[in-house]
Design goal:
alpha+beta; four-stranded antiparallel beta sheet; disordered C terminus
Length: 307
Amino acid sequence: MNKKRSKKHHYLPRYYLRGFANSEGGFFVYDKHTGKIFATSPDAAFFENNLNTTESPDGNQSDFLEDFYTEIENQSWNSLDSIRDSDFNTPIKHLDKMHLFCFLLFLHWRLPCNIELIDKLSDEFFRGDNDIDYLKLLSKTDNAVPKETIERIRRSPVFKKSAKQIVPLAPFFKDENWCRNLEDWRFIYSGDGNSWYIVGDNPIITHGDSDHDPVNCLKKFIFPVSGKILLVSGYGHTSQVLPPEFGIQYGAGIIERAQRFVACQNQGFLEALIKHHQLHVQFGKTDIIITELFGMLDKKDGKGKST
């Protein structure tokens, strides 16, 4: 029996987005392009039609890439649930961190903000002298693959879309310390147990200096695991007590890095964050938002629980 081809492709998975929804299963979304806020649900947000649809030379369309994302996600949800159900005193298993890291790598390279970058990286495959040399072309006869064939593959729209699922493998092939790096992860919990951490269409906040590096793109970053939990990577074993203003600065960072959409379960709090970000825009200070956010992590020291 032929499976019906999917059309609505979420670049932020619905299961992940439910960690930011209210008790009714919805949240409020801010559209940076229009300046408006509207109520919706994870099912109806952070998607693009046919984002992962491919078309073969004979005109047949396929959603096999979407199916692959589903397989990757399904292997991550148990670990995500374990972390989302944790609190300040819960030890996080290393295996759960590994599953989450895999999820984050695939998430990073499927975001709309990285589509142009993936397109450029796909042109670097099969050159054999870079961080993505783990993908090779071989002929059945062991002869060199003709350059015309290589270029035809590189130019193929199907291959360019497939590159989103090849580039995430780079750390596993090229960084022998990738697993050890996860020991430096730290999870920060909202002090009152409420959902103060928002999510956007570019939710992995990095310094920005290695975003284009397939191996090192996720060494130092902040990521919202849910509305109550942030993952901070790259700051050693030191725990922190983070003041309320850190959550405000984090919210400004999510809005600044978002291409278009930001979601929060509390409309009033979202409106306050938008005003805070707009002050930076008004005075030409948006360039300091991320720098100050990471600076707050550098300065603070404590017990790992936000106040």
